[in-house]
Amino acid sequence: MNGECRRLRVSLLQTDIVWEDKRANLERLRRALKELRGTTDIALLPEMFSTGFSMDARHLAEPVEGETVSLLKAWAAACGIALAGSYIACGKDTCPDAAPAAYNRAFFITPQGETTFIDKRHLFRIGYEKESYTAGHSLNVVRYRGWNIRLLVCYDLRFPVWSRNVQNGYDLLIYVANWPASRRKVWDTLLQARALENQCYLCGVNRVGTDGNHIPYNGGSVAYSPKGELIASLPDGLEGIATATMDLETLRAFRGKFPVWKDADKFTLDLKPPA
Predict the structure, then answer these.
(1) Could you write out the DSSP letters of every residue in 80-103?
(2) Which of 115, 210, 241, 270 is the most exposed place for a label (fewest CB within 10 A)?
(3) Helix (H, G, I), strand (E, B), or coil: what is residue 15?
(4) Is pLDDT at 183 greater than 90 in this prediction?
(5) Which residues have CB under 8 Å from 194's CB, separation 6+?
(6) How far is it, in rounded angstroms, from Cα 62 to Cα 72?
(7) 72: nearest Cα among 84, 63, 60, 62
(8) CA nearest neighbour of 17 among 179, 175, 158, 126
(9) Collapsed DSSP state (helix, strand, coil) of residue 245
(10) Is the pTM for the entire model greater than 0.90?
(11) What's the Cα-to-Cα distance from 155 to each of 26, 47, 104, 162, 175, rounded to whole Å?
(12) Beta strand pairing status for 7-14 and 42-44?
């Protein structure tokens, strides 16, 4: 299943999240995956899908060998679906020399048990995320079924340099989020812009409902083509699943016919954690 696949089916799971209740949220996911079996290749979950956007890392953080990741691996294998989202993690980050800390950690887990972890780079200052979590400083590309995939988390969307597609290094850009309804216009605008400027397929998955801090979320989960065309979406404020089919040959043909990437500015990223 890891050979090149021209067509990739990606499902957006727009859900409410029970505040700081891992068991309830994991059970919700288990039921959804049972229904999705055989119909999709990748299922995308919101940011901190098992807890909500909580700053209580002391009580909620888990190592990568913990219950949450173990269950995700088992369900990915049983359903034949790769899973991506983020959760509250503890232990060493993606840099093996770093000190133990807590992270808003994105994951990509294949049905074969292969795992990639990417820690959120830009921590949401206004929400005091910087006081509870350590910023990531690595940009990993996931190779899955012949596709190159970049996975980023929520606030990372506001920083185009971090998202930049250099020399067509990725084909699909994914943002998993808890993006509040009050700033929904930014979410809608920047997601489409990222697809256009990076000549890539793009998915953004966001939650609905109200969290434990009384902050409302109204979704806006979408998938865009490399031309900025909407290819999947979900109604505002409602839980649901939408699946987009993406075509690798179509993407390559577009990049060949309209090679904007060849004229891009060259730059070097400072991968040290931001201050």
Answers:
(1) T-EEEEEEEEEE--SSTTSPPEEE
(2) 270
(3) coil
(4) yes
(5) 157, 160, 163, 173, 175, 200, 202
(6) 13
(7) 84
(8) 179
(9) strand
(10) yes
(11) 24, 10, 11, 11, 9
(12) parallel
Q: Max alpha carbon distance in the chain (Å)?
A: 52
Catalytic residue positions? 47, 120, 154
Q: What would the pLDDT profile of 3-33 be if each residue is shown by its tens digit? A: 678 999 999 999 999 999 999 999 999 999 9
Instruction: State how far the Cα of 49 lies from the Cα of 206, in Å rounded to an integer.
Output: 10
In this structure, the number of other CB atoms found within 10 A of the CB of residue 261 comes to: 15
At a CB cut-off of 8 Å and minimum separation 6, what does 20 contact?
A: 51, 52, 54, 56, 60, 212
Residue 95's pLDDT is 47
**Band of residue 268 on the pLDDT scale cut at 50, 70, 90:** confident
Length of the chain: 275
Enumerate residues 6+ apart whose C-beta is below 8 A from 112: 1, 2, 77
Beta strands in the chain, from DSSP E residues, in sequence order: 7-14, 42-44, 82-91, 101-109, 115-119, 141-144, 147-153, 172-177, 201-206, 208-210, 216-218, 222-224, 230-233, 240-247
Pairing of strands 101-109, 230-233: unpaired
Report the mean per-residue pLDDT for the chain.
94
Q: Each residue of 66-104: pLDDT tens digit?
A: 999 999 999 999 999 999 999 999 986 454 445 558 999
Q: How many CB atoms lie within 10 A of CB 18?
A: 18
What would you report as the CA-atom Rg of the chain, rounded to the nearest whole angstrom? 17
Confidence of residue 2 (pLDDT cuts 50, 70, 90): low
Name the residue among 164, 87, 183 with its Cα closest to residue 126. Answer: 183
Summarize pLDDT for 216-262 with one digit per residue, the tens.
999 999 999 999 999 999 999 999 999 999 999 999 999 999 999 99
